[in-house]
Amino acid sequence: MKQFWVLFKANLLMQIRNKQVVFWSLVFPILLMLLFGTLFSSQGFTQQSGGKKVDLNFASYLVPGLIVLAVMSTGLIGYASTLAVYREKGIFRRIRTTPLPISTFILSKVLVQTLQVVIQAVILTVVGVVVFKAELDWGNLGLGILEVVLIGLTFVAIGQMIAAVVKRSETVSLVTQMINTPMMLLGGLIIPLSQFGDVPILPQIGSFLPTGIAVNILRPTISPEPFKNISDIQGILLLPVWASLLILVGYLVVSTIIANRFFKWEI
């Protein structure tokens, strides 16, 4: 157990010192919030509740989307690239010659990633509430944190799968960026899926991407009433939350199986 916590602290320190990871997983989502929160500060959503119109500002829509974006960046860009670099530099090979189980090393990194996604969610929520007056269902924040952890583990698994299938760190970085961009744009994280209505297939594809599934789990949880029915905001018919949870777990399980099957500890 002592070895585990030493590894955890070391991995946490390396994560903090990794400028690329810090930028893409934290600075970039905050910059997007400042940009889109300012551009669309006068826009929002309107619903009928009890015979009255109730407004939801755009920041309230943006916060859960950017949380998912930050979590995705951590798992894809951060974790996948780190594994590839460790493999190229022979770090895994050296660890395997020591009494330390490689599984303990990986578990410590996963725990660091999990802690990071929770911190990301807290910071983005604070920025959204303080700067842009985002409205949230505070009674469901505990459940929201659990969902963020599950989403984080799913994207970590996807990142590990990418590192397993793609060998070189430079190629891993390229692949993660190629995957990151469409999942950000089509997942309904920043732009409602209804905006892609001119090409009807795009909203449906987007709603089944890992990001689309993740945000459509998180948004109904932390959005205030009467905006729990996220289909009304996204503008398309979406799966119920329980079905989205099953699909997200499916992504997690399949990615983990593929990663375990194909991952090589050395080149």
Structure description:
By secondary structure, the chain is mainly α. The protein has eleven helices and two strands. It has a two-stranded antiparallel sheet. A hairpin with a 2-residue loop joins strand 1 and strand 2. Helix 2 (19-39) packs parallel to helix 5 (102-132) and helix 9 (210-222) crosses helix 11. The radius of gyration is 19 Å and the shape is elongated. The protein starts with a helix and ends in a 5-residue tail after the last helix. The mean pLDDT is 85.
Order of helices and strands: HHEEHHHHHHHHH
Helix content: over 70%
Distance between the termini: 30 Å
* Cα radius of gyration in angstroms: 19 Å
Number of DSSP E strands: 2
Large-scale geometry: elongated
Quick structural gist:
The chain has helices at residues 2-17, 19-39, 58-88, 91-96, 102-132, 141-165, 169-186, 201-208, 210-222, 230-234, 241-262, and strands at residues 44-49, 52-57. The protein is mainly alpha-helical and 267 residues long.
